Amino acid sequence: MDISVVVPLYNEAESLPELQAWISRVMAENGFSYEVIYVNDGSTDESWAVIEGLARENDAVKGICFRRNYGKSPALNTGFARAQGDVVITMDADLQDSPDEIPELYRMIVEDGYDLVSGWKQKRYDPLSKTLPTKLFNATARRVSGIHNLHDFNCGLKAYRRKVVKHIEVYGDMHRYIPYLAKNAGFNKIGEKVVKHQARKYGKTKFGLDRFVNGYLDLATLWFTNKFGIKPMHFFGLLGSLMFMLGFVAVVIVGVAKLYAMHSGGHYTLVTNSPYFYIALTMMILGTQLFLTGFIGELVVRNSLRRNDYEIEEEVGDMPKQ
Fold it and tell me: Are the C-beta atoms of 100 and 26 separated by less than 8 Å?
């Protein structure tokens, strides 16, 4: 099969028939063998009934229905697990992503050799209150992830080589950072294509401004787990040791200062009357706690069933399987 189109959706009953007709036309014009996997994320409208109707009319249409709303990331992850096409295309169900982009996205994966191609909605039909935070968000994501050629991490229209979606896990709200997840999994050939962004025709957006706050928290999580996920002591141990040593040195300075004042006959007070003593003591306590946190993290990693789960691209020669 050439292409799997994965479409996560929530309350998009009005747009689904038009979207499916559009996808079917594009696939027929280009002679692609394909499947369309609609993942109904607990919709409260007639979305699932519409998907069932589309599946009866077209054998290429498949549907997955969640019992309740879990979010876009679980919907994509479930769709990825079911996808069988050589190239997997994701798009939103609100008709803002154009299926006419599919042939070129497919070509970039198959002929140009990209692992992942992300859409870039260079011209957007969104209010300024949404576009400005998006620009800041993408600038931060580029800097942290090191993927400097992407302008729109959160674009729903993307294309993947099948092995990419089979080797990444999209959870929480990590759908915003799928290129970063792919890079962390060893898929480094990531490209971008300018795509058309169309005004929403039906319904209303499902995302609020809180996604930008959550987005930065998720980015920090990804950065930390990628850098220190299997080596927590390298972060907590180092930070804890530095903090403990600074606190210890500060305590020594406070003590030496008092002893010097006593020896020279100068004015001196109790060590416990100095605020620096308590600051230094607090730093030593926090440093110890951070160091112990590193130990606990190492114990967790050591007992993880996936601690030696490495991605192997290929093997040559006859070797026994693990």
Answer: yes
Residues of the chain with pLDDT under 50: 310
Q: Which tens digits make up the pLDDT trace of 218-236?
A: 777 777 777 776 678 888 8
Three-state secondary-structure class, residue 266: coil
Residue 72 vs residues 93, 154, 266, 314: alpha-carbon distances, Å: 12, 12, 69, 32
* DSSP annotation of 289: H
Phi/psi at 193 (5° precision): -135, 130
Q: If we measure between CA atoms, which residue out of 41, 34, 1 comes closest to residue 20?
A: 34
Radius of gyration of the chain (CA): 27
Query: Which CATH number is correct for 3-228, 3.90.25.10, 3.90.550.10, 3.30.200.20, 3.10.290.10?
Result: 3.90.550.10
- In three-state secondary structure terms, 102 is helix
What is the DSSP code (8-state) at residue 173? T
pLDDT at 296 (0 to 100) = 86
**Cα–Cα dist 316/321, whole Å:** 13
Domain edges within the chain? 3-228, 232-302
Query: Cα–Cα distance between 189 and 194 in angstroms, integer?
Result: 17
